[in-house]
Design a protein that fits this description.
- The structure is a single chain.
- The protein is an alpha/beta fold.
- About 25% of the residues lie in helices and about 30% in strands.
- It is globular.
- It starts with 9 loop residues before the first strand and ends with a helix.
Length: about 190
């Protein structure tokens, strides 16, 4: 099991738009319970959250429309593990919710037709990255670079927040989701 006393982790996946199903599938295969997050009430009782890829402008409009900015920010600032992928990284950057000290540029590689796959490095290990209308991280402030494509940062960690500019959920490689699920336990042991 993933949590103390045999209780599975309850992980929320922001479900206003974007790649929700693939993240849910990875989590459930690892024994986590999931909840789609659409309203502030959906955040209650979560052990962690995933902010998936999608269209960041649409997702931010949904966050504003549903009154999620405050509750989502409070949840993340409270230290719960958060995994953000692609548009999720944009949502957390300094120009949006301001919860991660990075600056992203949307669709930095071009349109949908310029999407690509490439071998990257995640925490010193090779990983197959899927980049779909991916952002670029053009500034890293108070965050550690944990993933790179050549010499450019494509993944960062700050406290309990981990963000990537690609889509690990679209691969069969489960290491990123496994590490995310282990993070809560590690944070509890360190406290």
């Amino acid at each position: 099991m993933l949590a103390a006393a045999g209780k599975p982790r309850l992980i929320g996946v922001l479900a206003l738009q974007g790649g929700v199903a693939a993240h849910v599938k990875h989590l459930r295969l690892r024994g986590a319970e999931t909840r789609e997050v659409r309203t502030p009430r959906d955040i209650d009782g979560l052990d962690g959250m995933i902010l998936p890829g999608g269209e960041s402008t649409t997702m931010m409009r949904g966050i504003e429309r549903e009154g999620l900015a405050g509750p989502l920010s409070e949840f993340i600032r409270g230290g719960a593990p958060v995994l953000a992928t692609c548009a999720g990284a944009i949502i957390l950057d300094d120009a949006h919710l301001g919860l991660l000290d990075i600056t992203c540029v949307r669709n930095a590689y071009g349109a949908q037709t310029h999407s690509f796959e490439d071998e990257v490095t995640v925490e010193g290990e090779p990983f197959h990255g899927v980049f779909i209308r991916a952002p670029k991280i053009i500034r890293v402030g108070n965050a550690a670079v944990i993933a790179e494509r050549g010499d450019e940062p494509i993944g960062v960690r700050s406290g309990s927040i981990t963000a990537y500019t690609f889509h690990p959920e679209l691969t069969r490689d489960a290491r990123i989701h496994d590490n995310f699920l282990k993070l809560k336990f590690n944070l509890e042991r360190a406290a």
